[in-house]
Amino acid sequence: MVCGIKSPQTTFIFFMKNILICCIIPLFAVFTACSVKPEPDPPAVTPVLETISITAGLVVDVNLGTITITYSVPVKISTSPGITLGNLSVAANATNKSVVLTFGRLEYATSYTLTIPKGSILNKTDNAAAEFFSISFSTVEYVAPNPDIPSSIIWNIDASPVNTNVSAGAKKVYDYLKQSFGNKIISSTMAEVNWNIDNAQWVYSQTGKWPAMACFDFIHYTRKGTNYDSWVDYNALTNNAIKYWQDGGIVALMWHWLDPSRITDEFYSEKTSFDISKIFDPTSTQYKAMIADIDEVATHLKKLKDAGVPLIWRPLHEAEGSYRYGDWFWWGSKGAESCVQLWKVMYNRLVNFHGLNNLIWVWTVSLDNYDYLWYADGLKWYPGKDYVDIIGIDIYDDAAAHGSHLDFFKKTALIAGSRKIVALTECGYIPDPDLMLANGDKWSYFMPWYGDYTKADKYNGAEYWKKIFSNSFVVTRSDLPSFK
What we know:
This protein is α/β, with parallel strands linked by helices. The protein is built from 11 helices and 20 strands.
């Protein structure tokens, strides 16, 4: 074969090779391309709540305004379904992973539930919906700001006692208290322990004059039918009270209420675990025990009603205790709400169930120099204008001695809206009448505690009683009008 010249056979073979190459290579490419699968779309990423600016059960201020939530991925807000917070309108704004919820002012002492339905928060990239979420919290109670203490009180004393069916005798006593308030101060003494007039008798023996009012205490009178019967004369209190009234005096009654369960014979909260909060549960044994004691006291009050004796009635005294040291009686041990409820239950039981219309109701506030929220605290504990005729305070202040208590006088008045008669329901030292006249703390009446507080020279003593009884501002029993 001559070099460079292909034979016919060689040419044909070369041609066929090119044909095969041209056909097979594209086919291989096709088959190769068909065997490669496309990349799947990445899975949706659900936003997960990571942090929130409140916690379940938190007590917040009414001006909270916003709640901030952080999610695990950047998110956006869907308009439906909407985010809710009680009945408030909620605006939501998302920035990257953060969502800020904005709303208006909350109500005081209210529970709220924040609800974020599924679909309200979406992944910003792939629209995956965050799961349903809710959280509950509450707001603080309203705290009334302390009012400015005025230079003088503008009085609007209630025209009549809160019991519209009050007896004629009680109405006469109330009218006298109202008329004399600010013009005179009524003198009073406390029974030595509970049922006698020993302290009044002592004052008379030293001065030749009887205190205008005598106060007694039901402290032991719910224990009738027990071993107390061996030494308690259950008729002594009513007999002495009736006689003091018949002799021209005014009668007051208070009640150091012993543990209604009778597990103890104590009234101090540190010595009895009696639970006053059960006053909200009429089926509880504690509720029934309280009602039983009220009913027992009612039997003695009825004797006085039947004898025509009006009563200055002061139960549940000093319930709040002290702002600095807390409560000291069981009726204040569970806070204001329970105590106010007990007061109202007692009022309805005595007035409406037992028909005792001879009672003039006295509430005792608790104020001290450490109470920075005195007005809010006083309002919280105050049973209300429809359940109180006289508002008073107990003051034992060695530093002030016989000095004036003008600040406490005004604060006590303001708690009752300046519409109630104001009394010094207990005291260690009797304020000097001249100072009361000069300064303006003209209490309706004063009542030093029994024993040394009445008799000892350290506190009042014979000479001081003579001094105050010589002052025309102070009312003794002989100065009282006839209430018969």
